[in-house]
Design goal:
The chain has helices at residues 148-156, 161-164, 201-207, 275-304, 319-337, and strands spanning 9-14, 23-27, 30-36, 42-46, 60-62, 65-67, 74-75, 81-83, 99-100, 102-105, 108-112, 136-144, 180-184, 187-197, 213-222, 226-235, 247-257, 260-269. The chain has 340 residues and is of the alpha+beta class. It folds into two domains: 9-123, Rieske Iron-sulfur Protein; 128-337, Naphthalene 1,2-dioxygenase Alpha Subunit, Chain A, domain 1, CATH 3.90.380.10.
């Protein structure tokens, strides 16, 4: 499995997670401490005090600085040491730490892991459904003990739904109908149409379909770790506007280490304003992603136990995932070579 791209935004937390106290996360093997300044803006620095290597995330926020829990050293959002309580002077640069560009958008906090001069917010994924008027959204987080590419594979091949998610997302027509895949630059898009099928349990919750439906799944992968799923359903044979999704699922698959991933997911819909329906959708998706976690962690353990075995196999359903892996491999090679 390939490594991590540096010059990219990675989801590091949900906006709701980061309150008055610092929050620590390891991203691409880097320990990161995030905290809010007095104006609510987010700062991200190395989660390690240079004095005695204590994680800053177990400390507290003092004004616009993060304070180490051990000896009270303070650091601002740029990583500069601003206070050493045991002495009057702070040696210039001696105890400074690395800072990371951070942006709060779409109810998520994103951190840029590479060259700060290249941290362009325009490169963030478009997850506007998370906080747009007219949309209801619910958010979840899982730490999955598996490589992030296995999670990408899982989301780009939904033929596993009838076998892993029997009581929530499964339904007829998924394995029987082919997926159509196209690549536009670094983006992989795919679609599966499932005409005249019975509704899956999640469709019955949201729209109470009385009979057969025309179901479809639209996928969009943006490297390195973002997948937007547009999951539509209309009464079979109807002429309803297919541009209005049944619901969408937004996925951020942030590498923690080579064998663990921070999985930030959200589900959003704009067709049923009932809060009880939104809660039920959240519960069904959480159950499904918990089921995925069990499969993926077992898969990672089996891969680790078989270091000299053959590579992963691929069939027709893996087409989108294979293309996503090729794009990641190419972009990693380009980054390593210093080419755009």
């Amino acid at each position: 499995m390939v490594g991590f791209l540096s010059n990219q935004w990675y989801a590091a937390a949900t906006a709701q997670e980061l309150g008055e106290k610092p929050l620590g996360r390891r991203i691409c093997n880097e320990p990161i401490a995030m905290f809010r300044r007095r104006d609510g803006s987010v700062a991200a620095v190395t989660d390690r005090c240079p004095h005695r290597k204590v994680p800053l995330s177990i400390g507290c926020v003092v004004g616009d600085d993060i304070q180490c829990a051990y000896h009270g050293f303070q650091f601002n959002g740029s990583g500069a040491c601003t206070l050493i309580p045991s002495q009057k002077d702070v040696p210039t640069g001696a105890f400074d730490i690395r800072s990371f560009p951070a942006v709060e958008k779409y109810a998520l906090i994103f951190v840029w892991m590479g060259d700060p001069g290249r941290a362009d917010p325009a490169l963030l994924p478009d997850f506007h459904e998370n906080d747009s008027p007219g949309w209801s959204a619910a958010h979840g987080y899982l730490r999955v003990a598996a490589n992030y590419q296995l999670l990408i594979d899982n989301l780009l091949d939904l033929t596993h739904l009838p076998f892993v998610h029997k009581t929530s997302l499964a339904g007829p027509g998924i394995v029987e109908n082919p997926i159509r895949v196209e690549v536009a630059g670094d983006i992989v898009r795919a679609r599966r149409d499932m005409p005249n099928v019975d509704p899956a349990p999640i469709h019955r919750v949201l729209r109470h379909f009385p009979g057969k439906i025309d179901r479809y799944q639209d996928f969009e992968f943006r490297p390195p770790v973002y997948i937007h799923l547009n999951l539509g359903a209309n009464p079979a044979g109807s002429d309803e506007d297919r541009s209005i999704p049944h619901h969408v699922v937004m996925n951020s698959l942030t590498p923690e280490t080579e064998t663990s991933t921070h999985y930030f997911w959200s589900i959003a819909q704009c067709v049923n304003p009932d809060p009880a329906v939104m809660q039920k959708l959240y519960e069904m998706n959480k159950m499904a992603f918990d089921e995925d976690t069990g499969i993926l962690e077992a898969q990672q353990a089996a891969i680790d136990a078989d270091p000299h075995g053959p590579p992963l196999g691929a069939v027709a359903g893996d087409h989108a995932g294979v293309l996503a892996r090729r794009i990641l491999t190419r972009k990693l090679a380009e980054e390593a070579a210093g080419t755009p």
